[in-house]
Design brief:
Blueprint lengths: L2 E5 L5 H10 L3 E5 L2 H5 L3 E4 L4 H10 L3 H9 L4 E4 L1 H6 L2 E3 L16 E4 L9 E6 L9 E6 L3 E5 L4 E6 L18 E7 L2 E4 L11 H19 L1
Parallel strand pairs: 1-2, 1-3, 3-4, 4-12, 5-6
Antiparallel strand pairs: 6-9, 7-8, 10-11, 11-12
This protein binds glutamine.
The site of glutamine (GLN) has 11 residues, from helix 5.
C-alpha cells in the first residue's frame, strides 16, 4: 500500500484520512518532519491558508515540505490545500500573516473567489480522467484558478456564470472557472471531495498518481 500523509496542522484532516484508507492507501497524519520524511504522497486539506502558513512555520514544516514537493513528492490539495500548493495567490488578503504558497503548481489562485454573498455551494462537475459520470463538488469559501502555466492540465471547470459578483475580478461572467488542475504528480481541487461520503473517485485518482510514481521509481 502506498503511504500517504495528510498534513494535520489544521482543517479537514480526518475526512481525508478516511477517504484515503477507503481508496487503498496507508494514510497517516503528518505533523512532524520525521513523519513527512516517511510518506510517499501528501494531502493538504482544506482550512485556512493563512493559518496553515503560520502553523507550517510553527511546526518547522514549511521548508521540509517545500523541499520534498520540489523533489517531486506527489501531492493533492483541496481548497486551502490548493492555495498552499500554488505559486501565487491573489485576492483580498486583509488577514496577517499572509499566505505563503509552496509553489508546487504553476498556477495563480484567487482566494474566496466565488464572492461574499455565496460562501458555499454544491454542484456536479465533469472531471477529466475520472470515469463514471460527474463528481459532486462541495465549495466552501473556495478559491478558483485564475492562470495556469503551460504544463498544467485543467481537469474541471464550473461552467458559465459565476454564482456571484463576477465583476469583482474583472472577468467575463460567462467564462468557466477552473476548479481542478494537475501538473505531473500534483493534483488540486478548489472543492472538497472528502466531504462527499461514498464517492472516493478523486482520492482513488490521487492514489493512482502515487502508485504510478512509485512504479516508475522502482523501474529507474
Ligand atoms: N477560504 C479559505 C482560504 O482562503 C479556504 C476555505 C477552505 O479550505 N474551505 O484559505
Amino acid at each position: 500500500k502506498p503511504v500517504i500523509g495528510v498534513l494535520a496542522l489544521q482543517g479537514g484532516v480526518a475526512e481525508h484520512l478516511a477517504a484515503l484508507e477507503r481508496s487503498g492507501a496507508d494514510a497517516r497524519p503528518v505533523r512532524r518532519a520525521e513523519e513527512l520524511a516517511a510518506v510517499q504522497g501528501i494531502v493538504l486539506p482544506g482550512g485556512e491558508s493563512t493559518t496553515m502558513t503560520r502553523l507550517l512555520d510553527t511546526f518547522e514544516l514549511y521548508e521540509p515540505l517545500r523541499e520534498r514537493l520540489a523533489a517531486g513528492l506527489p501531492a493533492y490539495g483541496s481548497c486551502a490545500g490548493m492555495i498552499m500548493l500554488s505559486r501565487e495567490v491573489v485576492g483580498e488578503d486583509r488577514e496577517l500573516p499572509a499566505v505563503r504558497p509552496l509553489g508546487a503548481l504553476d498556477v495563480v489562485v484567487r482566494r474566496n473567489a466565488f464572492g461574499r454573498q455565496v460562501d458555499s455551494f454544491e454542484t456536479d462537475l465533469e472531471f477529466a480522467g475520472i470515469p463514471d459520470g460527474p463528481v459532486h463538488a462541495v465549495f466552501i469559501r473556495a478559491p478558483w484558478v485564475e492562470k495556469v502555466g503551460a504544463d498544467v492540465q485543467v481537469l474541471a471547470e464550473v461552467p458559465g456564470t459565476a454564482p456571484d459578483d463576477p465583476d469583482a475580478t474583472g472577468r467575463d461572467a460567462a467564462a468557466g472557472r477552473i476548479v481542478a488542475v494537475q501538473q505531473g504528480p500534483v493534483l488540486a481541487t478548489a472543492f472538497h471531495p472528502e466531504l462527499v461520503g461514498g464517492d472516493e473517485r478523486v482520492h482513488r485518482y490521487f492514489v493512482q498518481i502515487v502508485r504510478a510514481r512509485l512504479g516508475s521509481a522502482a523501474q529507474a
